[in-house]
From TrEMBL:
Pfam families associated with the record: DPPIV_N, Peptidase_S9
InterPro entries: AB_hydrolase_fold, Peptidase_S9_cat, Peptidase_S9B_N, Serine_Prot_S9B/DPPIV
Domain Peptidase S9 prolyl oligopeptidase catalytic: start-end pairs: 566-756
Residues covered by the Dipeptidylpeptidase IV N-terminal domain: 128-471
Protein name, UniProt field: Prolyl oligopeptidase family serine peptidase
Signal sequence interval, chain numbering: none
């Protein structure tokens, strides 16, 4: 029998297998196509056979594949004109635009050069604080709370509005988008993400949200880099127990005349525009009107509204009311599954009226439903392309027929007029594609938006894998699904040599419900041994957590992939999605609605662990749970609802007090407010504090604007009043997204090692 590794060796291996290190142990695990605009040609960056990287140009129509450029030559030419060192491995090319013999190259850090036979020169890169127009000739930006326009060629600028003021600024992202706090601390100027151009560029549609009377949440930067005194950085938003205020505005602005048309905007119009930006705006031919989607999370009714550009007059085109709520997409951070086709007077509309999630064609003039576009037991996730001329739509959906994993993403083509639905990816695997996303994600967080489907809609790039089968990246025909070329086969030898424990997919039947997930086991379990198991939990209504493919997918990939590190320490882990989460039929999805005093899907986790212990060597006397954000909330909730089952929890940045959440945060559970105070109390964890029996470590960060630190403090007070012991760590300067450094992970591992493995010689320092 081989000797067991020491704890120090286990920690070293675990730190080598954390999620951010795993991609570096694979070669060519993803292809991000960059479409050139010349037909369906695209280029991508790949790991070269001899080390380093290379750039490949692919012409699907001409069946041609060749180097995009010579990296050594381009590096030398860029280094001669750009400030600072040029290393295309450390700072890759993000933009490559060719016009004749002249090439504009932009590195991902923003440095840009034009390389020409007449001479190479550095040029300004894209302004991250500007929103470019449709033809690239103009851009919008914010100045003194107003919306300005800049002509790119001349640099001339002029204001489009003059009445903006602090917290009532045109086109500005609202303060209550708490993700903005880290950007504010970095003093990064932001683009006007709540504004968009018309297709011709003549008109601008803009929103200004009225936050002037909103209460301030007093965030304190305890350790500002430029001074000893802490700095107050308040953000404004209404909590659940506060009354909304303010009068937001929506307006069309004519860039030629300066005329402004104000629209009477309701909460639904504003919420949809604020969440999805221009992605849900469709302009009528001649730019005489726009079609806007109107809906708020948790509302029973959604509508498509036509707004006249000149008069601001509103007309409801079609509406749907569903019980208990209507959802335009069950995956919260994806675009609504609504597409307006003004040229053909049609609307593609999503509905769960038959118990699944399907697309329907409606008449744009009357709102009448014309036909079902999709059929079968589908849960549609993304629309990749709608082609009115070819009368077809390409979309991504989960299915699960014939016992297959319902979380596997499949690509389909269907006729807009009904019939002709074709599965383009029949292989029993997950098919991961890059789908269109809300524009503000790129505008705020950077990066160029792209898609896995070509500009003409003829081709798509498919990353095909399972949790235990490495990816093949395929170029496929979007009409037939036929594989035109294997772009890459992922090399995972270094990953496996580093000790990566390949997870196993499971399906557990609970009553008449199938529950899916994956389990990861240590590779050194001794005969007769049972190992402690940790539930890597999110359990939120917003996203699916479990990766359906090889190190892919999931709403929080880093959290769901940390099982490899825990296996190195000697723990089994599971990742699963119980009832009340997306990706399944309507009954599964909305099972937790209006049940604030129930475990709300957490009992599915208990059921799964008990069933898995019949098949795998799991010790159910040593069960832990951990999660971040909504998972931090649910990890504590699991301990309080099932105190005899879950023995140890590490809760990171949990949202424990429902009243402290921004207004509307619980609407998915309770419907549109106002909400019963008793229901809000039941949704929180504070009133359950006296149920705590096991060991609990609470983690929080003082810069966290998404799950603010006072949530954790409220739970601490409740635990103290209930005389229940707990442990606490606070990360100074940490925000909601950067709490996964080496020290933080070691703290978490130490806690589970001490209380589930009964070892205090963690060796993790």
């Amino acid at each position: 029998m081989s000797s067991q590794p020491s704890q120090s060796e286990r920690y070293q291996k675990a730190h080598a297998l954390v999620p951010e290190r795993l991609p570096g142990l694979m070669r060519n695990h993803a292809v991000v196509p960059q479409w050139t605009g010349e037909g369906d040609q695209f280029w991508y960056r790949r790991d070269a056979d001899g080390g380093g990287h290379e750039y490949v140009l692919v012409d699907p129509d001409g069946q041609r594949r060749e180097p995009l450029f010579d990296p050594a030559e381009i590096t030398a030419r860029l280094a001669a004109v750009l400030p600072g060192p040029v290393d295309l491995d450390a700072t890759p090319v993000g933009r490559h635009e060719r016009e004749g013999d002249t090439v504009r190259i932009g590195l991902i850090d923003g440095r840009t050069a034009v390389l020409s036979p007449s001479g190479d020169t550095a040029v300004p890169g894209p302004d991250p604080a500007a929103l470019p127009g449709p033809d690239g000739k103009a851009a919008l930006f914010l100045r003194d709370h107003n919306l300005w326009s800049r002509e790119i060629a001349t640099g001339m600028e002029h204001p489009l509005t003059t009445d903006g003021e602090p917290f009532f600024a045109w086109g500005a992202m609202p303060d209550y988008t708490r993700a903005m706090l880290p950007l504010a601390i970095a003093d990064r100027p932001l683009p006007p993400a709540l504004a968009c151009f018309s297709p011709s560029g003549r008109f601008v549609l803009a929103v200004r949200l009225d936050e002037r009377a909103m209460p301030e949440h007093p965030f304190v930067d305890q350790l500002p880099p430029d001074q000893a005194r802490p700095r107050l950085r308040p953000f404004r938003y209404h909590h659940e127990d506060e009354t909304p205020s303010g009068s937001p505005e929506l307006a069309f602005i004519d860039r030629e005349t300066g005329a402004r048309t104000v629209v009477a905007a309701d909460d639904g119009l504003l919420a949809s525009f604020a969440s999805n930006g221009p992605s849900t705006v469709a302009w009528a031919p001649g730019e005489t009107a726009v079609y806007l989607f109107s809906h708020t999370t948790g509302a029973r009714t959604a509508s498509l509204v036509r707004v006249d550009v000149q008069t601001g007059e509103r007309t409801a085109v079609l509406s749907e009311t569903a019980e208990p709520i209507y959802e335009p997409n069950t995956h919260l951070y994806s675009l609504p599954l609504i597409r307006v086709l003004p040229e053909s007077d049609e609307v593609v509309w999503f509905s769960q009226s038959d118990g699944w999630g399907h697309l329907y064609r409606h008449d744009l003039a009357t709102g009448a439903r014309l036909n079902a576009i999709t059929t079968g037991n589908l849960a549609i996730r993304d629309i990749l392309r709608v082609d009115p001329q070819r009368r077809e739509i390409v979309f991504v959906a989960g299915c699960g027929d014939d016992g297959e994993n319902p979380y596997w993403r499949k690509v389909y083509r269907a006729g807009l007029d009904g019939g002709g639905q074709t599965l383009l990816t029949p292989e029993p695997a997950d098919h991961e594609l890059i789908a269109p996303a809300p524009q503000f994600f790129a505008a705020i967080f950077g990066g160029a938006a792209t898609s896995s489907i070509s500009p003409s809609g003829r081709w798509f790039v498919d990353r095909m894998s399972t949790v235990d089968t490495p990816p093949e990246i395929l170029l496929r025909d979007a009409r037939t699904g036929a594989v035109a070329e294997t772009l890459e086969r992922t090399d995972v030898r270094d990953l496996l040599d580093a000790g990566y424990p390949v997870p196993r997919q499971f399906r557990v039947t609970a009553g008449d419900t199938d529950l899916w997930g994956l389990i990861t086991l240590p590779d050194d379990i001794q005969p007769g041994e049972r190992v402690p198991v940790i539930d890597l939990m999110y359990a939120g209504f917003q996203v699916v957590l479990q990766p359906p493919g090889w190190l892919s997918g999931g709403g929080n990939a880093a959290w769901s992939q940390v099982g490899a590190a825990y296996a190195a320490l000697g723990f089994a882990t599971i990742v699963m999605d119980g009832r009340g989460t997306p990706g399944r039929d309507r009954g599964f999805r909305q099972w937790t609605h209006n049940a604030p005093a129930e475990p709300r899907g957490l009992d599915d986790h208990v059921t799964v662990l008990r069933k898995l212990a019949e098949q795998y060597p799991l010790d159910l006397d040593r069960v832990g749970v951990t999660g971040h954000s909504y998972g931090g909330y649910n990890s504590v909730r699991s301990m309080l609802y099932f105190p005899d089952f879950f023995k140890v929890a590490v809760s990171s940045c949990g949202v424990h007090d429902a009243l402290k959440m921004p207004k509307g945060s619980w609407d998915w559970f309770l419907g549109s407010g106002p909400h019963d105070p008793a229901a809000l109390r039941d949704l929180g964890n504070l009133h359950l504090a006296d149920r705590l029996r096991g060991k609990l470590l609470l983690l929080t960060a003082d810069h966290d604007a998404n799950a603010t630190m006072d949530h954790t403090f409220a739970l601490i007070r409740a635990l103290i009043e209930a005389d229940r012991p707990f442990d606490l760590k606070v990360w100074p300067g940490g925000d909601h997204y950067n709490g996964t450094n080496r020290y933080a992970r070691t703290v978490m591992w130490d806690y589970f090692t001490e209380h589930l493995l009964n070892r205090t010689d963690q060796g993790g320092s």
